[in-house]
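User: Could you walk me through two proteins back to back? I'd like the raw sequence and the structure tokens for each, with a short line separating them so I can tell where one ends and the next begins.

Assistant: Of course. Protein one, sequence then structure:
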Amino acid sequence: KKLASTLENEQRAHGDLKERAAEEGARWRRREDELKASIFEAKEEGRRIKEFAEQAEKEQIRLLRKEIDAEKAKVEEVEKKAECCSGRKGRSALLVIARIV
């Protein structure tokens, strides 16, 4: 009788251990799924940041080109005015124009 009772207790303990192991396994699988989702979200965020940086760089280049074009226009204007001027008075006028621009 004592042996049967011990065997029953051991079987119960074994069943409890199996149940806890199954619960622990399920908990780890959920945690693994959460981590996979976090990794995916981080990759997506990285992709969005990269796209934003590329767009910002393109916008910066566009603005620099616009600024360069404006400076070129100023230089062309001074050159046109300089063509009209000749001699000493022309050089003085050119210096005045250059200071203005």
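----
Protein two, same layout:
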Amino acid sequence: LYDLLEHEIVPLFYDRGGDGLPRGWIRMMKEAIKGVAPVFNTHRMVGEYASRFYLPLAARAARLDSEDGRGVRELAAWRGRMEAAWPNVQVLEVESDEATERAVGESIPVRARVRHGELAAEDLQVQLFHGEVGPDGDLQEAAHLPMERQEIWDDGTAWYSGQVPCERTGHRGFAVRVLPNHPDLVTPFLPGLIRWSSDPVEQGQTEPVPV
């Protein structure tokens, strides 16, 4: 970087003609604008904000406000039911392949049994939270994947399954977490409700699987 500044940028910027303008620098800036603007500019940025955030939020607000605010009342009632029933939501079991080694490109199958209690299974989303296990046992560069519901039992529990990808070498870890699920939530974290697996994976901890 210093070599670039010393031998190219600084000389070009201070090389000025009789009119006091750095013609070489101006020419390079115009070329940069011509090459960069079509793929990176405020028009693209504003359009992306509109399509990803503003327009969906406007549609959501209109939907919730329709019929004299019926959607808002229904969402508030749903949230109240979630908060009241959440203490009974629990990850009862987590099962995974007992093999402790995996090759890069393979995956770790995981099954979890979740108690949803008085809530419908559709009110919940179950996720695999996975990543590389750091020196302190925390997950680094963590990501999450949805687990698919496989069975619903009459005792208020359901089984879910998923796959932890082993994308590179190292110690991989995972945890199962449960979040609220509703089409009108901006984010599943908005209600402040979350349940982590506690057996065999402690809350906030990881189960390392070397690969």
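The two ends are 38 Å apart (CA to CA).

Let me know if you want the two compared in more detail.
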